[in-house]
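Dock zinc ion; give full complex structure.
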Amino acid sequence: MRDTRNYTIGLDIRGESVRLGILGTQVEPVWRGSAELKQNDPYGSFASIREALEDAGRRYPLGQIGIASEGMINMTEGTLRHPAFGEEPFPLREALSEAMGMPVWLDGPSFASMMAEWTSGACKGMDNALYLEIGDTVTGAMVTEGTLCRGKSGSAGALGHIITHAGGKECECGMRGCLNAYANINVLGEMCSRAPEAVMLLASDGDRSMRDMEHRYLSELAEGLSGLVAIFDPQAIVLGGFITRGGRYMLETLHRVLEEKAPAYMDGELLITYARHRVDGRVIGAAALADYYIPEEEDDEE
Ligand SMILES: [Zn+2]
């Protein structure tokens, strides 16, 4: 349990902007802030984050910091490779911990989103659940047997890189035929030469040809999901990111497609749903990761 004298602050680093949120005992942040980073300016970017944290610390007593960041994270070293921090891996975890005098947890965005959904969202308290974020890329994280699944280097859960088309399209990860290359949301737009959001909107409104296109796209997504369902036997698949704009029609279609594709694994108990936390998800999850991983300090006072 979080000591209410000490709040946890969550940071969500995307591109050049940072969202901050202070988490107390409620689900939603009690305070929100932001910071701007500069391209290729490690010390300027660091100073900007530090300033925002110091500002937050004047409002609420902070005990620990959780960070969810895009870019490449080395979990062992606590370093981040990100355009705002220059070419070299930046030792963000240690540097911030030293500057702020408190422990820091640095992690990837998918783990933060999964954590937010697992602690207070769509798959709250479930022992087995998958989270897939579907936007420009397909990423993910999973909870298996009541534990956030990490793997040997801490980066398990790259659910977008299961192969759905052997020898198929080249994926950004260097492999061929990954789900990511066939089911990222831009594929839906390319199928119809329209913005993905427009396709989803028209499909929801009943446009026949857009519904056909959306069905085709969801069949690609279901190729991957059916394999994941067979492997993990989850209680829930939580979808986050851009795809949540598809609304109820898209979710129902996906459910139907999956039932056609993998009847043996669709037992009627599998929940397929959108993430509860949208804008604040990574901030809430980053703080929850810090609470989850950073051991509670022994309280010697009295
Ligand atoms: Zn891949």
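Observed: The radius of gyration is 20 Å.
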